[in-house]
């Protein structure tokens, strides 16, 4: 066998495809922190502002969302935008973003951003899925207790000067069944908190997830609605979840049960 390396000829058409001399290449250049402009809206944590300023970035901070015209004007010259849920970064707005490279959603949802258009422009979009999971879980527990003890009615009566010391239809939540729709970051934490208060927890999710604690997965949304004393929704806003709860679903619920929507309003 010859030690000479044999090189097969490559067809002209294939060799041409390897030729990049005539193709425009994207040159990567270093940048300085001081050259990067960051726009933070909707009262992003002051700690974040301080960290970015300390790193040398140019930071513009606003406590509220901007209207469309003001947002279009501001976004023309910035590289990074930080928002919560009120700022709407539509295709119309993003089309004016000449230098934008990243959008940070300081919340769980990203439906306020036109993700398809952002991707077509090469703009990175990220969220913060753990940012408020504990806060929402605790809030739902508070709402469950408020409903079970009719604290809303009693508070309104007291503000009207009425002392109505009644216990009709008021009860402990221990022993009651909580049904969770969407067993993600929030749903799992809610289940753990509810169990610590003595509630029985069932849940439904479209994904085959592992239960935490003594919670039980059920086969369908209808089963959750039919069995639970309290139903809490924790699903993202998608075409599949839009109008997920309607008249048919409400009719499946037990008399006197409660529905808490901790998802988007479109659910």
Give a verbal description of the structure:
The protein has helices spanning 12-18, 46-54, 68-75, 91-94, 115-120, 133-148, 151-159, 185-196, 221-227, 247-252, and strands at 37-40, 58-61, 80-83, 102-105, 124-126, 177-181, 200-204, 216-217, 230-233, 258-261. With 267 residues, the protein is an alpha/beta fold. It folds into 2 domains: 32-126, Rossmann fold (3-Layer(aba) Sandwich); 133-261, Rossmann fold (3-Layer(aba) Sandwich). The relative contact order is 0.08. Mean pLDDT is 89; it is low at 1-18.
How many strand segments? Answer: 10
Average pLDDT across residues?
89
Strand fraction:
5-15%
- As residue ranges, the low-confidence spans are 1-18
Shape: elongated
Q: Helix/strand-derived class?
A: alpha/beta
Kindly provide the radius of gyration, computed on alpha-carbon positions and rounded to a whole number of angstroms: 27 Å
Largest sheet: 5 strands, parallel
Number of domains: 2
The helix tally amounts to 10
Topology (elements, then pairings):
Layout: H1 12-18, E1 37-40, H2 46-54, E2 58-61, H3 68-75, E3 80-83, H4 91-94, E4 102-105, H5 115-120, E5 124-126, H6 133-148, H7 151-159, E6 177-181, H8 185-196, E7 200-204, E8 216-217, H9 221-227, E9 230-233, H10 247-252, E10 258-261
Parallel strand pairs: 1-2, 1-3, 3-4, 4-5, 6-7, 6-9, 7-8, 9-10
Helix pairs in contact: 6-8
């Amino acid at each position: 066998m010859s030690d000479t390396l044999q090189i097969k000829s490559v067809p002209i058409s294939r060799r041409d495809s390897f030729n990049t001399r005539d193709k425009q290449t994207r040159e990567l250049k270093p940048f300085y922190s001081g050259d990067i402009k960051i726009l933070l809206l909707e009262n992003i944590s002051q700690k974040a502002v301080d960290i970015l300023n300390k790193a040398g970035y140019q930071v513009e901070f606003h406590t509220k969302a901007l209207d469309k015209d003001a947002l279009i004007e501001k976004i023309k010259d910035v590289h990074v935008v930080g928002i919560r849920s009120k700022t709407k970064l539509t295709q119309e707005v993003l089309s004016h973003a000449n230098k934008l490279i990243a959008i940070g959603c300081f919340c769980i949802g990203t439906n306020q951003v036109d993700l398809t258009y952002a991707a077509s422009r090469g703009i990175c979009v990220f969220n913060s899925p753990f940012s408020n999971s504990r806060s929402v879980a605790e809030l739902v527990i508070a709402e469950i207790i408020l409903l079970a003890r009719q604290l809303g009615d009693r508070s309104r009566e007291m503000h009207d000067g009425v002392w109505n010391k009644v216990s009709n239809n008021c009860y402990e939540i221990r022993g009651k069944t909580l049904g969770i729709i969407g067993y993600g970051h929030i749903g799992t934490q809610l289940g753990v908190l509810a169990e610590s208060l003595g509630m029985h927890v069932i849940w439904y999710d479209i994904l085959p997830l592992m239960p935490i604690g003594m919670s039980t997965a059920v086969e369908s949304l209808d089963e959750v609605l039919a069995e639970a004393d309290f139903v809490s929704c924790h699903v993202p806003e998608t075409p599949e979840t839009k109008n997920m709860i309607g008249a048919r679903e409400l009719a499946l619920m037990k008399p006197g049960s409660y529905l808490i929507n901790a998802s988007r309003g479109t659910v």
